[in-house]
Amino acid sequence: MTPQLQFPATQNPSADVNTLDDYEEGIWTPSVGGNTTYGTQTGTYTKIGRFVFIQGNIVITTIGTGSTSVINNLPFTCGTAEGSGSVSLSTTLATALVSLSVDVQNTSTNLQFRGRTAASVSDAVQAVFGNGTQIVFSAGYFV
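^ thats the sequence. predicted structure below, dont judge the formating
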């Protein structure tokens, strides 16, 4: 018989912080809000205890009144410390950048995109989303 690690469908939390009692995988739908239309809106997550790892792919057809720098609707609210991540693909950005990263905003369900233009000496929030933008990203954070 092969040993197995199983978790019940409903979490049975333990008072012992050293007990792994929560594991979940699922899907979520990244969104910039407003009346934005999308070609693709996919996201997956894995939650192990308090740690959440997310991946997403968003292709914006028409930005409309959506945010140009924030994706919302994360599957779990971030705790009091920010999370961080990376962008593995970006096309048709609204701003020309030399670097691009993603931060999970603390106590929220939002991802904020930061980058650096060629003239910048530090990262700043950037308006990256526009018509035709695609961004593939991943991040980790604690709930």
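Residues 23-142 form a domain with the Immunoglobulin-like fold (CATH 2.60.40).
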